Amino acid sequence: MESFNERQRPVKIEFPLRGEWTAPTTPAKKIPSHGTDRMGLRYAFDFVRADEKDLHKEYDAGFWRFFVFGVPLEKFYCYGEKIYAPCDGEIVELVDGIAERKTVHWVRESFRAVKNALTFDENNDEYSLIAGNYLVMKCSDEIYMAFVHLKTGSITVSLNEKIKQGTLLGRVGHSGNSTSPHLHFQVMDSADIKNSRGLPCCFEEYEVYQNGQWKTVHGQIPSRDERIRFYKN
Fold this sequence. Notes:
Elements: E1 11-13, E2 19-25, E3 45-48, H1 63-69, E4 71-72, E5 82-84, E6 89-95, E7 103-104, H2 106-119, H3 128-131, E8 133-138, E9 144-150, E10 162-163, E11 168-171, E12 183-188, E13 198-199, E14 201-210, E15 213-220, E16 228-230
């Protein structure tokens, strides 16, 4: 992993997931990617798995099931997928055991997201109120990474544990202020997420599906309308 200097280049790291993914929220579309610079969010990503035929469909169920009744978490393609350490580091913050909602219903999830965005006070509220289960990994004195909305009980590392690149960290979930199962991932300059500054990053290598074939790219970040994949032996 390379050291960071914002005026020169972004942090270059290994992609933290395996298989095929999309990034509905990405700094390739806009900065700040989540509409705010608060809490290290400036260059944050949201990663999901999409339907083979529809890049913007994240679950194996009909639209009316989602619209009227809600979709069980297990029907979402990315739910429970493994998350890996993008570099060597140390686990400096960790919260697990926060329950997930068993189904995703657009009205309830949208209401929660808006309510929490408007009412969350980083000076007084616990970060887990919006993050759910999460961990923070220290990569150097200047670089930290947060993995957010993890599946309840899935975190496989311990506080203060020193880990190697490729270590299994946990699984994609739907805890906290999550509108549907996904991995929220961000790089920042402090372990104190509430007061951190977001840092840009790019991924060492992954593949992009273009014109009916997979093309390997280096040192890039996915756009909103790209289907990407990464495998590692």
